[in-house]
Design goal:
Length: 172
């Protein structure tokens, strides 16, 4: 992890070494984009608000998480797979990127041809009996669609996580 100004660069690779003439070198300047992830801390300042809360809002408004929270799937892993398999639409357009950022007012739905997929039908039936969508989402089980009403607040997110500890870890 290397901190540069308001950015924290995390290197996610098999090993933090690259071959060199004298053995393995632990120093590297700029790894390829495929092995690094840039977390832009200044994004939270641009969004306005507490960094930890903004981080949770970004995570909660991902398409795979919104599909899970609405009740289209029984797990986040299943939601991610179904998004990748092009079963969901956002504002009438097919989206196959699980990390797609759903914005307030966006309509998320299941494609017409995907409404008979057994896992989706089972999850929607379970969601009907549960009928507890978070207050920042609206869900209509009959039309296989829902809407993101607003960005979630910290109180609207029921995750047992201390986001401040995560922010402190990555800000070192």
């Amino acid at each position: 992890m290397i901190a540069k100004g308001n950015q924290i660069t995390l290197y996610l690779a098999r090993g933090a070494f690259r071959p060199s003439a004298s053995g393995l070198s632990t120093q590297f300047d700029d790894p390829p984009l495929s092995v690094r992830r840039v977390v832009d801390v200044s994004l939270c300042h641009a969004e306005g608000g507490v960094t930890g809360e903004v981080l949770l809002q970004i995570l909660e408004t991902r398409l795979d998480n919104v599909a899970f929270r609405m009740g289209f799937t029984l797990s986040r892993a299943a939601a991610r797979q179904l998004v990748r398999h092009r079963h969901f639409t956002v504002n009438g357009r097919v989206v196959d990127i699980p990390s797609y950022a759903v914005r307030p007012g966006d309509m998320v739905g299941v494609r017409e041809g995907s409404r008979q997929v057994p896992s989706i039908v089972q999850a929607v039936e379970k969601a009907k009996s549960r009928s507890q969508a978070p207050d920042w989402l609206s869900f209509d089980a009959d039309s296989f669609s829902g809407r993101l009403l607003q960005k979630p607040s910290r109180d609207g997110v029921s995750l047992p996580v201390q986001e401040q500890l995560i922010v402190e870890l990555y800000s070192k």
